[in-house]
Specification:
alpha+beta; 392 residues; globular; GMP Synthetase, Chain A, domain 3; 7-stranded antiparallel β-sheet
């Protein structure tokens, strides 16, 4: 779609989303009123900045004050067709509910992502998202089925026995794709080595540091399938007809220049339950340049989470920065200390001989790299923990 037309679509859907949020959600109406802004004041994309930003903590407080699901949605439990809960890794778990319309919209956005990545109807895909009250497995499985792809839902490998059982089962199936997080894939790889399996797994590079740029999400409560990549290293094409992304400085809250890192603020469009200016507390950078593939949407590069920022003086360091220099198969953690002036990294096994020089050159700060025995760091079944906090 030509950029000018895309902006017109965004503007129309933004007005609809703001009006809907104001009229149907007490949470948003109170916040708009407190900011002195009404839906009539939002005439275009530039007016979005007049509305207040909110974060996950605000949703937790809203649900706690108005149990069980708060009033930040326009359609509640009785009008929904699916319910899930967040993992609660950063605080009190929150409910996620979907209407039939919002669920189908997610499936359509997922189909864009899967098609860009080369999936086609008839393919068989391994999915290791968590299930039960976590909505990841149901969402991804439903999206694959919607596209005519067969998902094999194995769940996160939470134990060695589980990982080995999965490997033995998958040996019998003609798997076309693996769609699992790097931590889970590493655990399946270790299990295959233990049992002497000949199963064909993706190489470490396939789920290495830059692979995280190939997909973009604003969370299940906002836009799960926010974007995906048309090719390696190109970043994720944002579904800009159904979302608006702002990138704000993590300290000042002001917009950053294109290509600079900042926190991702998302406004969802075209939904029964819109989210208006949701700060995901994720770090991204956005590329406005035309893409070789011909798609006209901007591309975003997911760099990590705010909670994983390590400040070394005034230098912002994220795990992906260190991972790139250590190699795709590295098991490591960054040590975060108050008022740190040195970058401390612990690596299993023997780190690359030039690791210290590479990290020092990248960040221009003193660097300490400590080798650890293989297996010394805790393994994750889902998403790896790359930062540990220790006193000064």
């Amino acid at each position: 779609m030509p950029t000018e037309e895309l902006r017109r679509v965004q503007t129309r859907r933004l007005k609809e989303a703001v009006q809907r949020a104001h009229d149907g959600s007490g949470f948003f109406r109170r916040r708009f009123d407190a900011a002195g802004v009404s839906p009539a004041d939002v005439r275009g994309l530039d007016d979005l900045a007049r509305l207040p930003v909110f974060r996950k903590a605000d949703l937790r407080e809203n649900e706690a004050a108005l149990p069980p699901v708060g009033d930040y949605r326009c359609v509640g439990l009785r009008g929904s067709v699916r319910l899930a809960m967040s993992t609660g890794t950063t605080g009190r778990p929150t409910f996620t509910i979907w209407t039939a319309n919002d669920l189908v919209l997610e499936y359509e956005l997922a189909a864009r992502a899967h098609w860009r990545a080369g999936l086609r109807p008839g393919h068989i895909v391994v999915n290791a998202h968590p299930g039960y009250l976590n909505g990841g497995q149901a969402m991804s499985a439903g999206a694959y089925e919607h596209m005519g792809v067969l998902p094999v839902c194995v769940g996160p490998p939470e134990s060695d026995e589980h990982a080995e059982r999965v490997v033995r089962v998958l040996e019998q199936l003609p798997i076309d794709e693996w769609r699992v997080y790097p931590a889970a894939l590493a655990r399946f790889r270790e299990a295959a080595n233990r049992i002497g399996s000949s199963i064909e797994l993706p190489p470490p590079e396939a789920s290495g540091p830059t692979a995280q740029h190939d997909k973009l999400s604003a969370g299940q409560e906002c836009v799960s399938y926010l974007g995906s990549a048309c090719g390696p290293g190109r970043g994720s094409h944002i579904a800009e007809d159904y979302a608006i992304i702002e990138v704000l400085d993590v300290r000042t809250g002001q917009p950053v220049e294109p290509g600079e890192r900042g926190t991702m603020v998302v406004t969802s469009l075209g939904r029964d339950n819109p989210m208006v200016r949701y700060d995901l507390e994720d770090i991204v950078r956005v590329d406005d340049a035309p893409c070789p593939c011909g798609e006209t949407s901007r591309r975003a590069f997911w760099e990590g989470r705010q909670r994983d920022i390590v400040w070394i003086g005034e230098r912002l360091v994220l795990p992906v920065d260190v991972w790139i220099e250590l190699g795709a198969d590295a098991e490591f953690v960054i040590v975060r200390r108050p008022h740190a002036v040195r970058l401390e990294v612990r690596v299993e096994g023997t780190p690359p001989a030039d690791a210290v020089d590479r990290l020092r050159a990248r960040f221009a700060v003193p660097v300490d790299v400590t080798p650890l025995p293989v297996g010394a760091l805790a393994r994750s079944a889902y998403k790896a923990a790359r930062v540990v906090d220790e006193p000064r």
